[in-house]
Amino acid sequence: MTSRLHSFERIDNFRDYGDYDTAAGRRIHPGRLLRSAHHARATDADLARLKALDVRTIVDLRRPGERRDQPSRRYEGFAAQVVEGGIDDGMEAPHITFLKTQDLTPESGRRFMTRTYRALPFDAAHRDVFARYFRALGEAEGAVLIHCAAGKDRTGVLAALTHHLLGVAHDDLVADYLLTNTAVDLAGRAPAIAKQLHAMSGRVASEDAVVAFLGVEPVYLEAAFDAIRTDFGSIDAYLEEALGLDGALRDRIVARLSA
What we know:
259 residues, alpha/beta, Protein-Tyrosine Phosphatase, Chain A, five-stranded mixed sheet, 13 helices, globular
């Protein structure tokens, strides 16, 4: 198992997405860029470890309704800056609607995930919190941790955009995105997750369908990037025009995170 993965008792998919070489001949500092799934089930030991990592900023990409349903646990004396998605449309999370209403097959799961990734960069809530995350990267001291519910889709796209901005090679960017499949051990957890889905929806999902829906594949991330290029011409143009990353902010982020 890669040393990028951090073992927590009840926080899933926790890992360092720094410590990569960049095209400018620099290297991203380890321990500054962290990502995970939600913290609602964190144990006291998990919170103590989180505190020891000197996390100064937490970016919670979940919808307000998700945060209400699964509020994050915090350690005593918690004083980190918290950046949250603030747009609540009152709708059920799309993945929950899918699980309740659609056929649970590998093919339907992949179609749903591809559609989700094509739309994800343009969602107003995502653009807002993504922009505030990048501003925090240029200003905050200590480590910045990003997470959503499972720490794979919204978190995965934002981590990949960060890697692109910093000049991480595309192969490394994709390999880092795919580490979710190792961190979560989907194949091992698929039977239990299938039972949970059956209890929630009353329908049976194959273990292959669970892996397709809850894992990540390169085609998902490429769907997001292709959609960005179609609408903005390039990922750099998206970062500037949609998220407000001008040259000065980019330079501050690069200087803060790499050497």
